[in-house]
Amino acid sequence: MIFLNHTADLEFEAETERLEDLFGICAHTLFQAMMEEDLMRTVMPRETRNVQVEGTDLESLLYGFLEKLLILHDSERLVFSDFSFKRLEKKNKNSTGWICEYECRGEAWDSARMTSKEHVKAVTYHDMRVERDATSGIWKARVLLDI
Amino acid sequence: MAFPNRVVSVNKIDSLKWEIPVGAFPGMHVPAIIFASDALMTKIREDRTLIQAAGVATLPGVIEKVVVLPDAHEGYGFPIGGVAALDCETGGISPGGIGYDINCGVRILRTNLTANEVKPHIPELLDEMFENVPSGVGSKAKLRIDRANINEVMERGSEWAVENGYGTKKDLEHTEEGGRMKAADSRAVSDDAKKRGMPQCGSLGAGNHFLEVQKVNEVFDAEAVKAFGITGKDQVTIMIHTGSRGLGHQVCSDYLRKMETEYPQLASKLPDRELIYAPAGSHLAEEYLGAMSAAANFAWANRQLITHWVRESFQKVFRKDADSLGLELIYDVCHNVCKVEEHNGRKCFVHRKGATRAFPKGRPELSHDYRHIGQPVLLPGNMGTASYILVGQEKAMTETFGSTAHGAGRVKSRHAAIAAHRGSDVKAKLAEMGIIVRCQSLEVVAEEAPDAYKDIDEVARVSHEAGIATRAVRLVPMGVVKG
Fold first, then answer.
1. Could you report the per-residue pLDDT of B460-481, keeping only the tens digit for each?
2. pTM for the whole structure
3. Nearest C-alpha of chain A: how many angstroms from B274?
4. Chain A residues inside the 8 Å CB shell of B409
5. How far apart are CA B205 and CA B223, in angstroms?
């Protein structure tokens, strides 16, 4: 995962062999943006949330997944560092829609341990892409977070 | 990606004004007019600001011109630091023209204190405000806002806060819209937005939001500053910069998605999908206006609560009450909002994104105390640089739909700023300048280094010399609290 140079916001690119890992990396980056870098390793798996979303395509699926995590963060002060893949697939054989489900583990923000960095206002569709490189087969994502 | 090629032709009109003419980009109905000096224009050309402005000019119902202000930089669909007016019958309303942080805004309080009196207390004051005002990621709410009262907060804004003991009637008079947009409709706000907002009502947030203790550095307009309650150099003021928190951000996200789902044909015809809008007269346009107004009111309630806790902090440190300290609100402005206004005989949705209303004297919208002077306009700098109070002028009504800049936009990405600076060095350099910074993260301090932003003095000068909002007073920081 690398952060790109965007003037006002936070844009990153991630790539990996498996699509399900890609979504996990993007989710991890969302929370990594919120705290000083090394602290993500100290986030304990005290709370578990099962997050399931649907989307019309892979971009809207990733968008919906990250947005659900952001809503959990703001409404319950949760940060997640571990994402276990449950499923990511077409809704059904004939449908163009997608569904994904992850078990997300983390804990409530602890200001004694966690140093605040960026407040992520929103996940955006700006420049967003989820695509597979035709040659290498590597899955790539680009996401811009409004901060 | 929209607009991969960022070049569009621009003509110079005079030393402070430029034009992207109709025809420079396919489908423009009106020109884009940029207010900038040569130096600021060089910065503006570095990103997609200009081509985004040209894109906005293709929207249906866009009136007269798209305005780009001297602190502009690229944003989501619309550039940040711009104004577009869309006709209320033939145009529409676009969430990208307001931004994710609905009613991100600024307010400034005056005091009876001088810099000499305050300077020895700055560390204590900053500590007190840091404790008293929730800030940063994951901050715990001081106030219990739940489903029973969140709707009231959104419907009534600052009025709700004042009625619950967090301010005075004078605070309402000195807030844009009286701190309450009457079009607010809490039913148009999603449950997700309310869930995000409830724990965050009365909190600063993070990033470029701040509390700043300042002192008057230079007075330009003696008559105006007298009306504002400013007596002269070294008088201490306090600036508060924050917005609608997670609630407003979710409202923007929700309606961008609703509009794209409702109007896919319309979205596909736009030069940039991020310009998606709801046509005037549609139910979605009405809903968004209601939700946006509700989010704006939430932001005003937020700033009013923070004002109360800032007053409490000063009272504790100086052991005097707020009245004796003269802790009065000069004004509160929003710089991300859409208003229904009439300009040159046409009723329109005026989208101000990173732009501030700058109405001249005589306008009925202004507080009675300022009607003979003109609207105070607040330009917050970032830590280490100056802030300004400007005064709205008549020329703004013909040039910029009664608007001016909102501060100093970023020029360096956060990563470039971190690469160029160590937070500890920035903090130390500011301390040498007599500015104390209280911030959780040294990385954020590096990101917010003064050279990451445009030159605020130049932004203020352009606004002044273009005659749209003139300089009244220049303020410099003494102490800053950042989330």
1. 999 999 999 999 999 999 999 9
2. 0.96
3. 8
4. 8
5. 35
The tens digit of pLDDT for each residue in B167-194 reads 999 999 999 999 999 999 999 999 999 9
Instruction: Provide the percentage of residues in chain A whose pLDDT is more than 90.
Output: 73
Name the token pair of B346.
């046409």
Give the domain CATH number at B302. Answer: 3.90.1860.10
Write out residues in chain A with pLDDT < 70, as ranges.
7
| Per-residue pLDDT tens over the stretch B49-64 | 999 999 999 999 999 9
Shortest CB distance from A146 goes to which of B100, B140, B440? B100
Instruction: Determine the pLDDT at residue B137.
Output: 87
Q: What DSSP designation does B185 have?
A: -
Quick check: A117 and B75 CB within 8 A?
no
Query: Which of chain A's residues have a Cβ under 8 Å away from the Cβ of B47?
Result: 7
pLDDT at B275 over 50: yes
Structure tokens of B189? 């706000």
Nearest to A71 among B139, B195, B415 (CB): B195
Average pLDDT for B2-19: 86
B447 domain residue, yes or no: no
- Helix, coil or strand: residue B295: helix
The active-site residue out of B308, B406, B421, B464 is B406
List CB contacts (< 8 A) between B249 and chain A.
121-122, 146
Residue with tokens 């003021």, as numbered in its chain: B237
Does the distance separating the beta carbons of A146 and B137 come in below 8 Å? no
B308 carries an active-site annotation: no
Contacts of A146 in chain B (CB under 8 A): 76, 100, 249
Nearest to B250 by CA among B292, B305, B297, B204: B292
3-state SS assignment for residue A29: helix
pLDDT digits 0-9 by tens, A61-87? 999 999 999 999 999 999 999 999 999
- pLDDT score, position B317: 98
Per-residue model confidence as pLDDT tens digits over B426-465:
888 888 888 898 887 777 788 777 788 889 999 999 999 9
What total of structural domains would you count in chain B? 1
Q: Quick check: is B391 in a domain?
A: yes
CB B463 within 8 A of CB B453: no
Each domain of chain A, given as residue ranges in start order, spans: 2-146
Subunit contact A116:B441, Cβ cutoff 8 A: yes
Counting runs of H as helices and runs of E as strands, what totals does chain A give? 2, 7
Look at residue B1 in the predicted model and tell me its pLDDT: 45
Question: What pLDDT, on the 0 to 100 scale, is given for residue B3?
Answer: 62
* CATH, domain range A2-146: 3.55.10.10
CA B239, CA B255: separation in Å to the nearest integer?
Answer: 31
Task: Give the residue on B whose Cα is nearest the Cα of A126.
Answer: B76
B96 located within any domain:
no
pLDDT at B204 over 60: yes
Contact present, B6 and B48 (Cβ < 8 Å): yes
- Strand-pairing partners, residue A49, are A104
Which two tokens mark B13?
């009109």
Residue range(s) defining the domain that contains residue B277:
11-90+104-411+453-482
- Percentage of chain B modeled with pLDDT above 70: 99
Q: For residue B465, is it within any domain?
A: yes
Look up residue B5 and give its DSSP letter.
Answer: S
Burial label, B371 (beta-carbon count in 10 A; 0-12, 13-18, 19+):
middle
Interface test with A, best of B137, B191, B276, B406 (most A CBs within 10 A): B137
CB A50 within 8 A of CB A106: no
